[in-house]
């Protein structure tokens, strides 16, 4: 059994490659929930839905959000009647979110997601990191901002001074799942807002230390492949490089995979992590994703 820690858009690209070469039934995906919140009356768990859509081959993999071929009739109508949305939610995507919202009246988030993945004929297990509501707040040069306000309303432009996310308890089976896995994969997602919220849950780091853990750096050179990870790493005093990422994961990481353009960093990273693999980590094509998946699973 293999368990993947996922969030954002980088890790779902890797999941897309892994499911092409590995039995999906033997995959567990633990997903970040710190960015979940209610928008337009529905519960939005963007990272969870991205994993659901990736595993069911529905994902809009041009932007790694929502369903491919979706329409936005409801979203546009809401603008026309002076009820604009912060998030652009597609019609089919909205149905998934409405279903999850209704299920959560009588079920935990974990139970709701399990019902949804079965409805989509997904064999892999998808586990929200927590069933408790959590949120992330950014201290910026224009004041405190909720994560989605920073990301969408302000388009990630403010300078980030500090990052705080509420502490929650891990969902049932999270620790057990990690302990019973042959390998844990930390995907190339934002280490600060996607991965640390999972690894800092009570008992998770201890479980990771007793497991075989592989991570892929989301940084090439001095910049993230996508998203504002660089700003977040700077805010918490980490170098924006694969060396900085290695330092964040050093307490539990066994193997670290960096991009071939960072081969000059290999010797320095080996002082932090025992095994460092150099390969192409920029997943532009399906072959890129499958090739990286093979390196990760080797």
Task: Explain what this protein looks like in three dimensions.
With 298 residues, this protein is α/β, with parallel strands linked by helices. It has a domain at 2-36 and 124-134 and 167-297: CofD-like domains (Rossmann fold), CATH 3.40.50. It has helices at residues 10-21, 46-55, 73-80, 91-103, 109-119, 147-153, 174-179, 191-199, 204-209, 229-235, 242-249, 266-269, 286-297, and strands at residues 2-6, 27-31, 37-39, 42-44, 125-128, 136-140, 143-146, 160-165, 183-186, 213-216, 219-220, 223-224, 255-259, 275-279. The longest helix has 13 residues, at 91-103.
Largest sheet: 7 strands, parallel
SS elements, strand count: 14
The termini sit apart by: 14 Å
| Number of helical elements | 13
CATH architecture of the domain at 2-36 and 124-134 and 167-297: 3-Layer(aba) Sandwich
Low-pLDDT parts are none
Taken in chain order, the helices and strands follow as EHEEEHHHHEEEHEHEHHEEEHHEHEH
Task: State the fourth-level CATH superfamily of the domain at 2-36 and 124-134 and 167-297.
Answer: CofD-like domains
Judged by helices, strands and strand pairing, the structural class is alpha/beta
Helix content: 25-40%
| Strand order within the widest beta sheet | 5-2-1-9-10-13-14
Report the sheet-strand fraction.
15-25%
* CATH fold group of the domain at 2-36 and 124-134 and 167-297: Rossmann fold
From the alpha carbons, calculate the radius of gyration and give it in angstroms: 18 Å
Can you give the mean pLDDT?
Answer: 92
Oligomer: single chain
CATH hierarchy, class of the domain at 2-36 and 124-134 and 167-297: Alpha Beta
What is the global morphology? globular
């Amino acid at each position: 059994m293999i368990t993947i820690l996922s969030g954002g858009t980088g890790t779902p690209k890797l999941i897309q490659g892994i499911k092409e070469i590995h039995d999906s039934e033997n995959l567990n995906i633990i997903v970040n929930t710190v960015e979940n919140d209610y928008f337009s009356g529905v519960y939005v768990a963007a990272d969870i839905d991205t994993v659901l859509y990736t595993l069911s081959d529905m994902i809009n993999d041009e932007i790694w959000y929502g369903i491919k071929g979706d329409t936005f009739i409801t979203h546009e109508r809401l603008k026309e009647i002076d009820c604009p949305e912060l998030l652009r939610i597609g019609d089919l995507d909205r149905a998934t979110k409405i279903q999850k919202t209704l299920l959560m009246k009588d079920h935990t988030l974990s139970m709701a997601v399990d019902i949804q993945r079965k409805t989509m004929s997904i064999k892999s297990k998808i586990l929200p990191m927590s069933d408790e509501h959590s949120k992330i707040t950014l201290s910026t040069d224009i004041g405190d901002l909720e994560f989605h306000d920073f990301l969408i309303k302000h388009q990630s432009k403010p300078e980030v001074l500090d990052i705080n996310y509420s502490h929650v308890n891990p969902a049932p089976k999270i620790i057990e799942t990690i302990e019973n896995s042959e390998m844990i994969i930390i995907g190339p997602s934002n280490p600060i807002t996607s991965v640390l919220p999972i690894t800092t849950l009570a008992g998770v780091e201890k479980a990771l230390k007793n497991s075989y853990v592989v991570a892929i750096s989301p940084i090439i050179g001095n910049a993230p492949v996508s998203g504002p990870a660089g700003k977040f790493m700077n805010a918490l005093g980490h170098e924006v490089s694969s060396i900085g990422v290695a330092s964040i994961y050093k307490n539990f990481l066994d193997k670290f995979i960096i991009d071939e353009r960072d081969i000059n960093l290999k010797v320095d990273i080996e002082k932090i992590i025992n095994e460092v693999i150099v390969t192409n980590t920029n997943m532009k094509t399906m072959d890129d994703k499958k090739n990286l998946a093979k390196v990760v699973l080797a």
